[in-house]
Amino acid sequence: MANQNLENQPLTEDNGNEVPLPARRERIPLQRLHIEQRQSDSSYSTSELGRQSSISPTSRNLELCVYTMDKCGLQFCLDNGKHATAGELSKLVQGNLELPHQASEVFCLWLTSPLLQLQLKPHHKPYKLCKQWYQLLTKFTGAKQEDIEKEEPILCYQRNCFLSVKDEKRITDTAILHRLFDEAKYNILEGRYPVPENDIYYFGALLTFIEHGKFDPNIHQPGFFKDKMSECLPGHMCKNRWSFPGRSLRHMNEQKLLERYQHVSEATHITDHKVEFLKKCWELPYYGSVFFKGQIERPCTSMIMREMPDRAVHVAVNREMVHIIDLEKKAILLGLGYDELSWEYTEPSVDRPNGFPCLWLEFDAEEERKKVNKLLQIFSKQAVMMDAMIEVCVEDLNRRDINTSGALPSQLMNRQISVKPSLTNRFDRLSLSTFNDEGERITSSAAVKRQFSLSNPFRRQTKYHHPSNLTVRH
């Protein structure tokens, strides 16, 4: 989640003086965040990290751990640590990792759990946010009560989501690049970055070389990756499924991985395999995205008489584009640049107060050689976060355009949108409403037909007006 999304939330911190943060560096295995108030004595043991947090209101010392994407952690004991800010902690981590000053623009602190990820602003106080995690999960996720109660966040030192790929490519410091590699590796193996089949084995071969060194035909034979596939390939490719004519997909993936591993080992142009991995990730249009959870309707067809359950998706937002990713298939459903879309955020209607907020995406397409407008509705309690992130990215894009072209903001908002036919290859898996240039709905594959027409209802200036029965936040 983008850090600006906490700005208007009820997360007011106490005003206190900035306190010095004495550091004690200690690398420990990855585990859950443990923030604990204790009396200053010698009874503390690092083995207690990861147990149920306990708070002593009489103590001033705060013991916490900040994790890095290489699955290690830095443990600190802070005097008056309840008032320590994310900016202060980030500098502390940067110093302990011996990273150059440039790292302050590349990395920042995130507060994350399986259900929610928040990038913190420098003034946010992690201790207070941890205490409010239950309320944040209730507000921004649709998780069940019992699942929310099990969640405990961890502090992570991660890539700043507002860092552009263009700026990242200018980085030459090896230590920073290797930290970025750790996060890119995580996103590849977790399946957050859908990767074409030809490329995924190249990523896997690079990871294999980094982990096991140069290919050795006497060692790296079929069966070598039996218990190591998850170290090199995304989890959905490591399942032992069968395909015709009787060979398992896992076995086929291992064979392809071995072949690419051998080729990578013989390559003479690669001097740093971690940097090579990162450079390959830069080619992915959704690299560096913030991932929001949402759901979309499945297309309603005449062959299906009953209403289908919604499709779970990730809405991936970065500085350049918005992507809709099928969580089950790990596939891109839609990808739009900011000069190709309009958007709007809406609250649930008055007669359905328990409904989910929505993010609407509108874009141009072509059908039967005619230009039409497509409209996609995304249901999510995190829709307000998506809206805020997109707004910041669009404003930044407009500022860059003004600086380079001298155009007025109104001219930029009304720039011509080019139609990308390649986007239509996933339309069969999207529930879209189609409108003509006059704003009249032509077709709709939504299970429930909307009672309003939204041909162009978004922030870019248009000749259309918001329908009176749609709640819109300005």
Concise synopsis of the structure shown:
With 474 residues, this protein is of the alpha+beta class.
What would you note in describing this structure?
- With 474 residues, the chain is an alpha+beta fold.
- The protein is 27% helix and 22% strand.
- It has twelve helices and 18 strands.
- The protein has helices at 86-96, 103-106, 126-131, 133-140, 145-150, 165-169, 174-189, 197-212, 249-266, 273-282, 383-405, 409-413; strands spanning 27-29, 36-38, 61-68, 72-79, 107-113, 116-119, 154-159, 242-243, 247-248, 290-296, 311-317, 321-326, 331-337, 341-346, 358-367, 370-379, 432-435, 441-444.
- The strands form four sheets. Strands 1, 2, 3, 4, 5, 6 and 7 form a seven-stranded mixed beta sheet that branches.
- A hairpin with a 5-residue loop joins strand 17 and strand 18.
- The protein is globular and about 65 Å long.
- The chain starts with 26 loop residues before the first strand and ends in a 30-residue tail after the last strand.
